[in-house]
Amino acid sequence: MRTWPGNPYPLGATWDGAGVNFALFSENATAVELCLFGPDGNAEVARIPMAEQTDQVWHIYLPEVRPGQRYGYRVHGPYDPAHGHRFNPAKLLLDPYAKAIDGTIRWSDALFGYEVGHPEADLAPDERDSAIGIPRSVVIDPAFSWGDDRPPRIPWNETIIYEVHVKGFTARHPDVPPALRGTYAAMSSPAVVDYLSGLGITAVELLPVHQFVADKHLVDRGLSNYWGYNSIGFFAPDLRYSSSGGLGHQVDEFKTMVRALHAVGIEAILDVVYNHTGEGNHLGPTLCFRGVDNASYYRLVPDDRRYYMDYTGCGNTLNMTHPRTLQLIMDSLRYWVLEMHVDGFRFDLASTLARELHDVDRLGAFFDIIHQDPVLSQVKLIAEPWDLGEGGYQVGNFPVLWAEWNDQYRDTVRRFWKGDDGQAGALGYRLTGSSDLYGRGGRRPFASINFVTSHDGFTLSDLVSYNTKRNEANGEGNRDGTDHNLSWNCGVEGPTDDPAVVTVRERQKRNFLATLLLSQGVPMLLGGDELGRTQQGNNNAYCQDDEITWFDWQLDRRRRDLLAFARSMTSLRRRHPVLRRRQFFYGRRIRGSEVKDLSWFRPDGKEITEEDWTNPHTRCLGLRLSGDALEEVDARGGSIADDTFLILINGHHEPVRFILPAHRRGIRWEAVLDTHEGQARHRERLVRGGQAYELDGRSLALFRLRSERGEALGVPGLP
């Protein structure tokens, strides 16, 4: 086979229309061989030395290679774990920059760089060839007909996120052809796109779609790494979600999905895992980075480089202090934006990425590079603002371009609806954008990603149905997952036909959905919560690729009613800017208006005092949002006005008579919704200010200011 020297950049395998350039970074290797495989993907038909090395990048150009070619690497160098080196040319390696990967791991002891089972096993290399169990990297043709695809660029304050798993969402969808279910193609099918559009969300946040490793200990137990938080290919859409094969076709299928979502104004956000890889700790397999250059790609213990620093609980941590690791992550992110057209990223355990040495540095190199990048600084950036290391909890401390998962929102809202003491003050902050966390450094309410449930924990239906986790199916003796549930669920465990219990549970679901979608900040809805999806009490379903996690699309009346309620809430939020402000509330009169931009009320109709906020028994309050005091501007620079709303929240288990705020003559409060019944009660649809509204136990009611003629009003006059 003819070979040319090629170029050191771009890294990876690059088809230029005439041949393929291969480039692999390895600072400490002594030699690199490129392995090519035949049409069946099994036989190694060529092993070509890469003689050229420029700036620690090994490179070669093959004019006879075409897209669809399967390949891998064998990298030579010292096997010296004590000094951080684990080179072993017997182990076939994935390309860290592979744009597609064909096949999945087939576990055997040959995949490990050492002889498994020996005392001090990893100190000596294993010479068995691992090629039979390693997937193949694939050369792709990047050409794709995007047509007039454009990023929706939904403003942060208008964003509603839907967190969902590609397979679980579509695996049992009756209107998706069986051959497509569980794939990117299913996500772009008309039935699925229409459902997402009708739900009123503006962005899907996909659980990890980078090619990932199904852990050996899970496979041995007949389970799977369903969530996919175990990446091995940061450029490759996972083959398991492809209906069209692995020779680069999964790339086109993913692009088609993004194009279909964009066509209806929905953004695609990827949950990405750059904090660790699927190679585990010092006893893990040699699949890619470990064999390419272990000492460069991983954070090693300074005093004994045989071992890995582990801030993730997954055995290793990528070395963000090495410029080539930073380059890998930045190249990956830009690739997904520029070539795959995604609109943003949610970074798993993002505090790990900020660790310069040991401490978390929120102004570290990773953030500096992203902030100056002309591509990445323009997309949505969401942090999971913690990791498992010391000082890793960093909620509220990320830089100005970033939004954050706000677990304090989750816990406060759950505790309030459970009826815990002392939640009023915290709830006041959470409903209004968490200014105590994000009200400094130029950040806005939309820095807070508000959620009640996420993939990691109970679904909404299970949250109100189980006191304790039911994780026995995971095979860990129910020891995994968190032990506590911060929601009140009637004291009855699991499914029940008791009408009284069912009624209360359905109301609690509406309470959580209404609270989430009426709060300032960015709401994130866990996929399936709007359908009453259950995981049978499993709050750590990371390994359940089955009916426990797959959506059940057979909807009874209760589930249809819940879906209708969720759609009505997203519609309400999207129609009213006062429910999704760009600025924090000031708590004072704005632009000469007659009332403050927000006001808090007690059940007796008077404004809440400091003593009320600190009273541990305050469980019922009202929040008035003045629509004519927005201080917002539209896209054309004009001022925005809106209706004035009143939100009443009762965390007591008993009903409360709430005196609605009184205003000038001719003003009425129109009941928009009441979670007691899921809609406004017609007998009390218009309530005069100064009159009482019967607010049921554990319920939320929403009112809009109206005149006697039924006209919506912005700011009412004072009495």
Task: Give a nutshell description of this structure.
The chain is 20% helix and 19% strand.
Going by helix content, strand content and strand pairing, the class is: alpha/beta
Strand order of the largest sheet: 12-13-16-17-18-19-20-21
Span between termini: 90 Å
Task: Note the overall shape.
Answer: elongated
Number of strands: 29
Assign the CATH architecture of the domain at 12-138.
Sandwich
Low-confidence segments, given as residue ranges, are 713-719
Instruction: Classify the fold: give the CATH topology of the domain at 12-138.
Output: Immunoglobulin-like
Helix content: 10-25%
- What average pLDDT do the residues reach? 92
Architecture overview:
- This protein is α/β, with parallel strands linked by helices.
- Among the domains are: 12-138, Immunoglobulin-like, CATH 2.60.40.10; 408-414 and 455-565, no CATH class; 585-707, Sandwich (Immunoglobulin-like), CATH 2.60.40.
- Helices cover 20% and strands 19% of the residues.
- The chain contains 15 helices and 29 strands.
- A hairpin with a 6-residue loop joins strand 3 and strand 4 (44-49).
